[in-house]
């Protein structure tokens, strides 16, 4: 799976705003996981080349909501921002993960497979 685009989005508790961070240099989900903070959530806008089981290729753009254990204020800020961000970016798919170690290609393919069966 080749990553095409990755952007991280964070929320500022003091300003109550959503901020677009710099491009992420990681080329795999495993490398991306290494860049995630231990106790701060992030929205990750993620696009990649996905070859389906039937041979078709698509380039989905999804949002990954990385939500480790954090403060109640951060939980509320990120939780209340999720739908507005998805609407603004015209995203339909959000996948959630609480542990950066779970952020792997295997996890992503499993989650996408669940969406395909729905």
Map the helices and strands.
Layout: E1 2-12, E2 17-23, H1 29-35, E3 42-51, E4 57-58, E5 61-66, H2 72-89, E6 94-97, H3 105-117
Parallel strand pairs: 5-6
Antiparallel strand pairs: 1-2, 1-3, 3-4, 3-5
Quick overview of this protein structure:
The protein is an alpha+beta fold and 118 residues long. The protein contains 3 helices and 6 strands; from the N terminus they run ββαβββαβα.
Verbal overview:
The structure is a single chain. By secondary structure, the protein is of the alpha+beta class. It has a single domain, classed as Severin (3-Layer(aba) Sandwich). Helix content is 32%, strand content 34%. The protein contains 3 helices and 6 strands; from the N terminus they run E-E-H-E-E-E-H-E-H. Strands 1, 2, 3, 4, 5 and 6 form a 6-stranded mixed β-sheet that branches. Strand 3 and strand 4 form a beta hairpin. The two termini are 22 Å apart. The mean pLDDT is 77.
Mean pLDDT: 77
Sheet-strand content, in percent, reads 25-35%
Helix coverage percent of residues?
Answer: 25-40%
Radius of gyration from CA coordinates: 14 Å
Question: Unreliable segments (pLDDT under 50, ≥5 consecutive)?
Answer: none
Helix-strand topology string = EEHEEEHEH
Total domains, how many? Answer: 1
* CATH topology-level name: Severin
């Amino acid at each position: 799976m080749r990553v095409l685009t990755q952007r991280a989005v964070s929320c500022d508790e003091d300003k109550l705003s959503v901020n677009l961070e710099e491009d992420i240099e990681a080329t795999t989900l495993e490398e991306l996981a290494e860049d995630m903070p231990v106790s701060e959530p992030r929205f990750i806008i993620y696009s990649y080349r996905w070859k389906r089981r039937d041979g078709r290729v698509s380039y989905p753009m999804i949002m990954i909501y990385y939500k480790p254990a954090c403060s109640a204020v951060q939980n509320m800020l990120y939780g209340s921002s999720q739908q507005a961000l998805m609407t603004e970016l015209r995203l339909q798919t959000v996948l959630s993960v609480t542990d950066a170690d779970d952020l792997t290609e295997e996890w992503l393919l499993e989650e996408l497979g669940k969406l395909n069966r729905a």
